[in-house]
Specification:
This protein is an alpha/beta fold and about 575 residues long. The chain has four domains: about 1-100, Helix Hairpins (Orthogonal Bundle), CATH 1.10.287; about 120-245, 3-Layer(aba) Sandwich (Rossmann fold), CATH 3.40.50; about 250-420, NAD(P)-binding Rossmann-like Domain (Rossmann fold, 3-Layer(aba) Sandwich), CATH 3.40.50; about 450-570, Regulator of K+ conductance, C-terminal domain (Alpha-Beta Plaits), CATH 3.30.70. About 50% of the residues lie in helices and about 15% in strands. It is built from 23 helices and 20 strands. The longest helix has about 30 residues, at about 1-30. It starts with a helix and ends with a helix.
Length: about 575
């Protein structure tokens, strides 16, 4: 508000001064020029009447000559004042219209309206800095789960595109630099309902500045940042950033999981992958043999190190031999798009290929050239632009790495279903047989649909009926939540994955587990199961039917009718 007032007075200072001077001179002239009253006596207009006359004269309303008819001298002065005031008013109005159209003033109004909307937030929300491919995917995922989001981006076209998105929740958006603390404050950094800040810009220094500002101005807030550099990661960790997501290291870890335990990799993809994609078949990357890594940038370096840790010594192909931190093994100069370069790298005996440059066209060319030279090849492709999804699907890569999708899925799990993040972390310590058994159970449950994952808290907000029953000493088992509230003999298509009680985590808890207040339970299954489970959690009659099998009447009329029937039967 202070910026708007300052800009208005700064731009309108000269027009207002000229307007005031013009009115003052016109008023003063009317008080000095003599007139005549109705009796022909000499008369001078007082300041009040002079100011009143000039006020309606300058606006050309024209109430007439007051309080007496003017003399020729007064009319001559009024004519001069009339034209002068009209010109000055046009000048002032023109300056005012120019002010309204000025980009700085309009931006100040937009920021004020944005800050007012954020201050009016009544539900917990997250601040997402950066509305690119990653930010848009994350915001859509969060709003689909009815979570409020506020976003900042320095590209007006991206902010305008947000208006066209068919999101379930309204998302306040501001075109501004998130590195400025005032913009983060306007976005709700100090708001008591702000749950966290997510920095997803494509500039590491900008994400670092957002993280520092957030931790200094709101130390208890959750901060999640994207970082493509290990140096920036170390800097972020030094002041307590809660989560740092490096898409290249994350994918390299996924690839290592696929090499060591395909079942665990598939389980992670099903539970935490893109919700819009269908279930994929398991992949089995070759654990032994000759691998070729094309592109030794941040992605290629991360994959190369993981393959080395798995006992594979890949050959690196890069356009320049003068790369930072050169690999320990063989480095061949070239793009990998030419057959001669791939043959020099040993494509004829290769079992795996990583097309990991930062150019989608080059990656597609590498894959197509390699497939012409050898058929039995496991292909890992890096996709930089989300618009090229159909092309990468057509090329037939076994694993496609898209940095934006990896970051969005990872953060979506952290914010939307934090229990799933804990579950996946614990699942990585399980053996392959455990993972394969769980994958089979889920596959039989969801019928080739991607499983829905949800978590619930046994409290008065999320489970009013269950928490009330537990508070009154009733026993509720985990199996009771898996019963259909319309037919208790039918089991809902869902699997309890984990339960947390007083900080202790239990993986795949048995169905006869007694629930307690403050328990947190993670489920997976069909979406319909989550909807029907909500009736059992919140509705006393549905819970009573699930526990006892008795469908009690709800209204006073039916309760009275049943009581009369019972008394008649007893008599």
């Amino acid at each position: 508000m202070d910026n708007i007032v300052f800009l208005a007075f700064r731009r309108m200072r000269r027009p207002l001064l000229i307007l005031v001077v013009t009115h003052a001179v016109a008023t003063l002239g009317l008080t000095l020029i003599p007139g005549q009253d109705d009796a022909g006596n000499l008369w001078y207009m007082d300041f009040f009447h002079a100011f009143y006359f000039v006020s309606f004269m300058s606006t050309t309303i024209g109430f007439g000559e007051i309080p007496y008819a003017f003399t020729d001298g007064q009319r001559l002065w009024v004519t001069f004042s009339l034209y002068a005031s009209v010109v000055v008013w046009f000048y002032a109005i023109g300056k005012l219209l120019a002010l309204v159209q000025e980009r700085t003033f309009r931006q100040a109004l937009i920021e004020r309206r944005f800050a007012r909307r954020v201050r009016a937030q009544l539900k917990p929300f997250y601040i997402v800095c950066g509305y690119g491919e990653t930010g848009s995917a994350l915001i859509r995922s969060l709003t689909d789960r009815h979570q409020d989001v506020v976003t900042i981006d320095n590209d007006q076209e991206r902010i305008d595109s947000l208006e066209l998105e068919n999101l379930r929740q309204f998302v306040p958006a501001l075109c501004a630099d998130a590195r400025r603390p005032q913009h983060l404050i306007d976005a709700g950094l100090k708001h008591p309902l702000c749950q966290g800040v997510v920095a997803l810009t494509n500039v590491n220094k900008a994400n670092l500045k957002v993280a520092i500002t957030s931790k200094l101005l709101h130390p208890r807030i959750k901060v999640i940042c994207r970082a493509d550099s290990h140096d920036v990661e170390a800097n972020m960790r030094s002041f307590g950033t809660d989560y740092i997501v490096n898409p290249f290291d994350t994918f390299a870890l996924h690839l290592a999981t696929a090499l060591q335990a395909p079942g665990l990799y598939l389980l992670q993809e099903w539970l935490a992958g893109n919700r819009d994609l269908s279930l994929r078949e398991p992949v089995y990357p070759p654990k032994r043999g000759h691998w070729i890594v094309c592109g030794y940038g941040r992605f290629g370096r991360a994959v190369y190190q993981r393959l080395k840790e798995e006992g594979i010594d890949p050959v690196v192909v890069d356009v320049s031999k003068r790369v930072n931190s050169p690999p320990d093994g063989v480095l061949i100069e070239g793009r990998g798009t030419e057959a001669v370069t791939l043959e020099e790298a040993g494509i004829g005996k290769a079992v795996g290929l990583v097309a990991g440059t930062d150019d989608d066209a080059n990656n597609l060319s590498i894959i197509m050239t390699a497939r012409e030279l050898t058929s039995n090849l496991f292909v890992v492709a890096r996709q930089s632009n989300l618009d090229n999804t159909q092309i990468f699907d057509a090329v037939g890569a076994d694993i496609i790495m898209h940095p934006s999708s990896i970051i969005a899925n990872r953060i979506r799990v952290m914010l939307g279903t934090p229990l799933l993040h804990d579950f996946i972390g614990l699942a990585m310590y399980q053996d392959e047989a455990w993972a394969c058994d769980l994958v089979k159970r889920i596959a039989l449950l969801v019928d080739n649909e991607r499983p829905e994952v949800w978590e619930l808290h046994i409290d008065s907000d999320s489970a009013l009926a269950v928490s009330g029953a537990l508070a009154h000493g009733r026993v509720v088992h985990l199996s009771d939540l898996t019963r259909d509230p319309r037919d208790r003999e039918r089991v809902l298509p869902t699997i309890p994955l984990m339960i947390i009680r007083h900080g202790a985590r239990m993986m795949l808890p048995p169905l006869d587990t007694h629930l307690k207040v403050t328990d947190r339970v993670l489920f997976c299954g069909k979406r319909s199961a989550a909807d029907r489970m909500g009736w059992t959690l919140q509705n006393y009659y549905a819970l009573d039917y699930v526990l006892t099998g008795e469908n009690k009447p709800r209204s006073w009329f039916w309760r009275s009718l049943k009581l009369n029937r019972t008394n008649s039967a007893e008599s």
